[in-house]
Specification:
Elements: H1 8-16, E1 36-37, H2 49-61, E2 72-77, E3 89-93, E4 96-100, E5 107-108, H3 114-118, E6 122-125, E7 132-137, E8 147-149, H4 150-164, H5 170-178, E9 188-189, E10 192-193, E11 198-205, E12 208-211, E13 220-221, E14 235-240, H6 241-247
Parallel strand pairs: 1-9
Antiparallel strand pairs: 2-5, 2-7, 3-4, 3-6, 8-14, 10-13, 11-12, 11-14
Length: 254
């Protein structure tokens, strides 16, 4: 994705060790040294259209994970200094230029286009290279803004892995595959960005619930993508630090 930029020997050693699944009832337990925590993952640059089509294929192959969620992608700034106010997106090739409409939230849909595929078009923006990133954005309709569905996140992972795995070095790519792949292995944690500082993420399925692990800066969370004990309809509810501060009345002074 690259899902990790860890030293090759570390990955090799981790893949040789037996998988150590986290206990679903206590997902905050990070004591298992065998688990690769992929904190150095980055969102990729925009891609050739033929590469993005692999993501469309993965969505079709795994749509059962989120049967009512459309496939959209999200265009984001690589750093806070990059303005997205005037961003535009196009499919470009020799004698081909097709505008890709962007919604106000930066999301876009990508249709199958034989002309663009045959022309080996690129998905490009009007920003300098490496200043914007994309991610799959798969959201089941009807959920509150602070709730995500686990199956949606699993499907996002499948789409990203399909698009980005070929960009990994041969050895690293095959070590990930040996471990079961980032979407299915207890040895590989894939943190997701929250977009805001988290105070907590509660995973719930029926009467069962658990608090998910957060990154040190509390801007990422790690869902149990691999753990079949949590079904696809399990819901993640997010609470944010800024909302808690806003809800706390200021102390009165004498």
């Amino acid at each position: 994705m690259p899902f990790a930029r860890l030293p090759l020997l570390v990955l090799f050693a981790a893949c040789l060790l037996p998988a150590h699944a986290q206990d679903a009832s206590t997902p905050q337990d990070s004591s298992a040294a065998q688990v690769i925590d992929v904190r150095a993952m980055r969102d990729p640059d925009l891609q050739p259209y033929r590469t993005m089509v692999k993501g469309l294929d993965a969505y079709a192959d795994h749509q059962r994970l989120a049967p009512t969620a459309p496939l959209r992608f999200k265009l984001m700034a690589a750093t806070p200094a990059v303005s997205m106010a005037d961003v535009a997106l196009r499919l470009e090739a020799d004698n081909l230029s097709v505008a890709i409409p962007l919604a106000s939230d930066g999301t876009f849909a990508l249709a199958r286009d034989k002309t663009a595929y045959d022309a080996n078009a690129d998905l490009v923006s009007n920003k300098k290279r490496s200043t914007v990133r994309w991610r799959p954005n798969i959201v089941t309709p009807g959920l509150p803004a602070n709730v995500r569905r686990l199956g949606d996140l699993r499907l996002e992972c499948e789409v990203r892995w399909a698009v980005e795995q070929d960009a990994l070095p041969f050895m690293r790519r095959n070590l990930f595959k040996l471990a079961g792949g980032p979407c299915h292995s207890a040895m590989i944690n894939v943190p997701y960005p929250a977009g805001r500082t988290l105070s907590g993420v509660l995973l719930r399925s029926g009467e069962r619930s658990a608090n998910l692990p957060l990154s040190e800066d509390r801007n990422r969370y790690t869902p149990p993508l691999h753990d079949s004990r949590w079904n696809d309809d399990a819901l993640l509810t997010f609470s944010y630090v800024d909302e808690e501060h806003a809800a706390t009345p200021p102390l009165k002074t004498l």
